[in-house]
Each structure stands twice: as C-alpha cells, then as structure tokens.
Design a protein that fits this description.
The structure is a single chain. About 40% of the residues lie in helices and about 30% in strands. It is of the alpha+beta class. α1 runs antiparallel to α2. The two termini are about 15 Å apart.
Length: about 70
C-alpha cells in the first residue's frame, strides 16, 4: 500500500532528508520519500504492516524534529 500524508511543522530541508533516510531504514517500510517544498511524506509498506510502518515513521520523525507530525 502506498499513501501520501501532509507533514505539519516541517521546518528544515536537512531534517527532511534525515527523516527520509531514517524511515527508509525501518524494516516494515518498503519505501519512503519526503518532499520538503510540498510538506508531504509518501510512505509505502505491506498492507498488513502499514499501521506499524506509519507509527514507526512518526517515531523516527519525532526523534529528528520533535514538533513535526504526520497529518492523517
């Protein structure tokens, strides 16, 4: 499954790159990309692991930029 989410409070392009790299290292994530200009996260994971991947992605984002949240 592949979904696109808005990111709230994403302030730094360098942080976006770090977030993307961290999310892509997660076992439950097939692929992830962050577009800093559009403030969007594209996340792809197996259907049965998608909720786990989304939660893990939010946790990874929070470690890099604590104010940044995935908007559902």
């Amino acid at each position: 499954m592949k979904k696109v989410f808005k990111l709230d409070q994403l302030d730094c392009a360098n942080c976006a790159a770090k977030m993307e790299a961290a999310i892509n290292k997660l076992d439950c994530v097939e692929s992830a990309s962050i577009n800093f200009m559009a403030q969007r996260l594209t996340l792809e994971a197996a259907d049965d692991k998608f909720d786990e991947a989304l939660a893990a992605a939010q946790k990874a984002i929070g470690r890099i930029e604590s104010d940044c949240k995935i908007v559902m």
